[in-house]
Amino acid sequence: MRPVTFQLLVSLSLIVLSASDATVYCIDLDSTQYLCKNYAVDPITQQSVTCSANNSIQVMCESADHVKCIGKDQFGVFNKTIPDACHYGAHINYTTAVLLSIFLGFFGIDRIYLGYYALGLIKMFSLGGLFVFWLVDIILISLQLLGPADGTDYAMAYYGPKVQRIR
User: Fold this and answer.
1) What is the dihedral of CA 142, 145, 150, 155, to 10 degrees?
2) Nearest CA among 46, 78, 48 for reference residue 60
3) Rounded to two decimals, what is the model's pTM?
4) What angle do CA 98, 99, 102 make, to 5 degrees?
5) In this structure, what is the dihedral angle of CA atoms 122, 125, 126, 132, given to the nearest 10 degrees?
6) Within the chain, how many helices (H) and strands (E) appear?
7) 82-122, pLDDT tens digit by residue?
8) HEC string of 4-37?
9) Segments making up each domain of the chain, as ranges
């Protein structure tokens, strides 16, 4: 009988806590409890205007009507940092790399565009490794397995075919 009374008290205390004022910060809400507004996209780089060096962006979000949280301003919105939402420093265009690989890849132009100059020259003087390296590079660049030599990501359309790497 005693454990049932304890469970009843715990459940009643949880109901009282949920009905009280907010005790959770807005930035710690579950993704189903808030809605973020669209953010401005730079037409040249196709990245968010607020893209920072650690590849995160700042967006303004509103919590759901029934959710109370700490950190809202007078308009009922809060700023949230979304990690890995942009590619800061991306300067090589993905579409250009794919098109160069398809049409001029057997001359090594795609590798030179990506920054792999020695391999580009080898492909140039061997006609794409007798067209074998040409086909391999088309597949590698299309699947985004071969990126720019400096380690940055491709600059691509905001709603383009982005690959998420799982490590």
Assistant:
1) 40
2) 78
3) 0.61
4) 85
5) 60
6) 6, 5
7) 887 777 777 898 999 999 999 999 999 999 999 999 999 99
8) HHHHHHHHHHHHHHHHCCCCCEHHHCCCCCEEEC
9) 23-82, 94-143
